[in-house]
Amino acid sequence: MEPTCNLIIDSTCDLPRDVWDKPGITMLPFTYFEGTTTYKDDLFASRTPKDFYDWMRGGAEPSTSQPTQGEYEDVFRAAVDTGVPTVFISFGHALSGAYDGACMALDRIKEEKGEDVELYVVDSMLPSSPLGLFVAEAIRLRDRGMSAKELVAWAQEARYYVNVMFMVDNLESLSRGGRIPAGVAGVGDMLDVKPLLSIDLEGALVFAGVARGRKKGMKRMVDFFERNHSVEGESRYVVTGNADCQRDADRFVSQISSVDESALIIAHDIGPTIGSHVGPGMISIAFWGPDRRSNLSISERIAKRVKSE
């Protein structure tokens, strides 16, 4: 079936090129830099994961930046000029200003082209592996003929069914980037544990537990998948990521496959943008599972109600 819409995605989805490199799909790169040297996050097209993470192991502390307003506007303008309805799936707003930047660019394009342009910006509320899962499914639905408006409606609901857990070697990089408090990172290092994290409904990082060592951490993640992964519906995608720890990643994929032989596993490298904040050694998993809104505590439900009102 011929697609009825185009997609714009960004490099924080960390998907392998063969998943997204199709007609009508545009990849918008983030930027990472150290000092005065700037690099485009081309998902390791110009350098290997080992080279990048060895760079970090050697003391590099890269920072990251979302696309500029000019870059957003250029890509959006080109999309509108094709005459094909287009959906941009953005990195979650809780970890980046990318969504706000995209909305500002869309406003600018509407000033130029008119309010009725068929260009839509969606906040995925997701990063990296979960965003990759989300984008891979959006591509599948788009290729089956889903329209732009249908895809937007799907995305606004589907993002809550993405379940995720990831393990980092330490919390230093996340602390440096302001994603968690510095004091929390220090406690984790002192206890010699491997932190397990997830995301809340807004896409911000939350602690999911700790494990004594990487093997136990991976076991916790496999158990999480076994308890929660969906066996319904057409999509069997499971996305696993690793930050230059391929041996552990291969073992992890094997363990996931043993739980569900029908899972369609997309294994990917954690790209430079996300890698700059998590550091070497990260292992992640994202899959379709229960509605995360149903797992809210009483205090979270109250806070959500107050915010909505």
Features:
single chain; 309 residues; alpha/beta; Rossmann fold; Hypothetical Protein Tm841, Chain: A,domain 3; 6-stranded mixed sheet; 4-stranded parallel sheet; 42% helix; 22% strand; globular
Question: Can you offer a commentary on this structure?
Answer:
The protein is α/β, with parallel strands linked by helices and about 300 residues long. The chain has two domains: about 5-160, 3-Layer(aba) Sandwich (Rossmann fold), CATH 3.40.50.10170; about 160-295, Hypothetical Protein Tm841, Chain: A,domain 3. Helices cover about 40% and strands about 20% of the residues. The chain is built from twelve helices and 13 strands. A six-stranded mixed β-sheet has the order 10-9-8-13-11-12, with helices on both faces. Strand 9 (about 195-200) and strand 10 (about 205-210) form a beta hairpin. It is globular and about 55 Å long. The mean pLDDT is about 90.
Counting structural domains, the number is 2
> What structural category characterises the helix and strand content?
alpha/beta
The main sheet orders its strands as 10-9-8-13-11-12
Low-confidence region ranges: none
Number of strands: 13
SSE order, one letter for each helix or strand: EHEEEHEHEHEHHEHHEEHEHEHEH
Radius of gyration: 19 Å
Overall mean pLDDT stands at 90
Helical fraction equals 40-55%
The CATH topology of the largest domain corresponds to Rossmann fold
- The coarse overall form would be globular
Helical element count? 12
